[in-house]
Specification:
CATH topology of the largest domain: Outer membrane efflux proteins (OEP)
Largest sheet: 4 strands, antiparallel
Radius of gyration: 36 Å
Strand content: 5-15%
CATH class of the largest domain: Mainly Alpha
Number of helices: 11
Strand order of the largest sheet: 1-2-3-4
Structural class: alpha+beta
Number of strands: 4
Order of helices and strands: HHHHHEEHHHHEEHH
């Protein structure tokens, strides 16, 4: 008898199982393995994303910003962890859709000092029918929450993609700055050799030789500084792309940096913003899920009712069979705490949504103002280059004739080089601001890509 009753319980215990894997360095390495380029190329052609388009990736000509964006979404290890949230949301849908198990109740009456009496027993099965009342609302809430999770994941993926674009543009700008600094360093190195030879022959003073050496050392320090920055930015890009630190990366040649930006108007960027930005769409789905959860909590206040059927035998060996009904008496607990909790969650989501919309609109305004300011700085720097070029040529000619000291020549050449480096930095800053505006507006803005040539509109009239 005892063993017969034990088998059903052993079956219940054994009907579900979990898989446990110890958290070790080897397990982590096995979980995260860099994707092969061939695999990424195939996935990029059919990527399904609300903010990214399928792309044909060809790394033979180097890495472009758009290619980096798609690769980051497909291979970034941090996003792999974020996507696991989708599995949690799907499991919650399964959980709320399950109905409660029936309850089996067994009992026994053993006569004590009652000769001629039999052992009585009772057995019954009950099932809670009230669980059906909030079930549909719970499934609706979980389904909408899963949709919110999908949108939130897509938002994080897009931010990672845009960060990869910025990383490529930063690295491209730094490589150009380094090339400019290296050109100046080579010029000053050759000049130092010439001046040193002239000093040995007594044609120039030791002061002039020392000035040439100081100018060369300063330019060399700038090159080393940019070397360090290039290496740092390269590692940051590899991390975004899910690439090992020792893997070589080469950028596409002639990546365009904007020489000016003609941004859309604030009204155009903020129009239908809440229907476009993925994070706001996720919050709206979360709010809808919360509304369904409130409805489910209200319906859960319905008293728990269970129906069943049972059979019993008393100690006089009389058998009885009949239905059973149990009703919860909601005297103390009306599940008002559940309703209050869901209502509070709804208010929090509404406040967060309003705050996010406000922040997005203000971010757009600030980015537009920054774009205008950098646009003016860049135009001013561009207009200064011909003047500095003419000054450097004039000072060089005068120095060759001995009409000005050599320090004036070094200052003129250095100022010209620094202005060109400044222009590259401003162009990179303008590119970053353009991508930041894309993120804030929640949509792709192809009109903010690199613009070749000087802007036609004067700085004060640019939008």
């Amino acid at each position: 008898m005892a063993m017969g009753l034990a088998w059903p319980f052993l079956g219940i215990v054994g009907c579900s199982s979990g898989r446990y894997e110890p958290l070790t360095a080897a397990a982590a390495d096995e979980t995260w393995t860099p994707k092969h380029v061939e695999e990424i190329v195939v996935e990029a052609r059919s990527i399904d994303h609300p903010a990214l388009r399928p792309l044909r990736i060809d790394l033979n000509d180097g890495l472009s910003p758009d290619e980096a964006a798609v690769i980051a979404v497909l291979a970034n290890p941090g996003l792999r962890a974020v996507r696991e949230e989708r599995g949690v949301a799907e499991a919650q849908i399964i959980a709320v859709g399950l109905l409660p198990n029936p309850t089996l109740a067994l009992g026994m009456d053993v006569p004590v000092e009652s000769p001629g009496k039999s052992i009585g027993y009772n057995a019954g099965v009950e099932w809670e029918i009230s669980a059906l009342v909030p079930r549909e609302s719970k499934i609706d809430a979980a389904s909408r929450q899963a949709a919110a999770v999908d949108l939130d994941i897509a938002w994080q993926e897009w931010q990672t993609a845009e960060s990869a674009k910025i990383a490529v543009l930063r690295l491209a700008a730094l490589e150009r700055e380094r090339a400019q600094a290296d050109a100046l360093n080579r010029l000053l190195e050759q000049n130092l050799a010439t001046v040193s030879e002239a000093a040995r022959e007594g044609q120039v003073t030791e002061i002039e030789r020392a000035a040439a050496e100081a100018a060369h050392e300063e330019s060399r320090s700038k090159v080393l500084e940019l070397d360090r920055e290039v290496a740092k930015r390269s590692l940051e890009l590899k991390r975004l792309l899910g690439m090992p630190a020792d893997r070589e990366i080469r950028l596409e040649e002639n990546i365009l940096l904007p020489e000016c930006l003609h941004a859309p108007t604030p009204a155009d960027l903020t129009e239908k913003l809440e229907h476009r930005r993925l994070d706001l769409l996720a919050l709206r789905k979360g709010y809808e899920s919360g509304t369904a959860a409130v409805r489910a909590a209200v319906l859960s206040q319905f008293p728990r009712i269970a129906i069943g059927v049972g059979q019993s035998r008393d100690t006089d060996s009389i058998y009885t069979v009949g239905p059973s009904l149990s009703i919860e008496l909601p005297v103390l607990d009306h599940r008002q705490a559940d309703v209050a909790l869901e209502n509070a969650s709804q208010k929090r989501l509404l406040a967060e949504y309003a705050s996010r919309v406000f922040e997005a609109e203000n971010d757009i305004a600030m980015l537009l103002a920054d774009i205008q300011a950098v646009d003016r700085e860049l135009a001013a720097a561009q207009s200064a280059v011909p003047i500095l070029e003419h000054l450097a040529q004039t000072v060089q000619a005068a120095s060759a004739e001995g009409n000005v000291d050599i320090l004036s020549y070094y200052n003129a050449v250095n100022n010209l080089s620094q202005k060109r480096i400044e222009i590259i930095g401003l162009e990179a800053q303008l590119a970053e601001l353009g991508i930041g505006l894309e993120i804030a507006a929640g949509r792709d803005l192809p009109e903010l890509r690199g613009v070749a040539g000087v802007c036609a509109a004067p700085p004060e009239n640019r939008p």
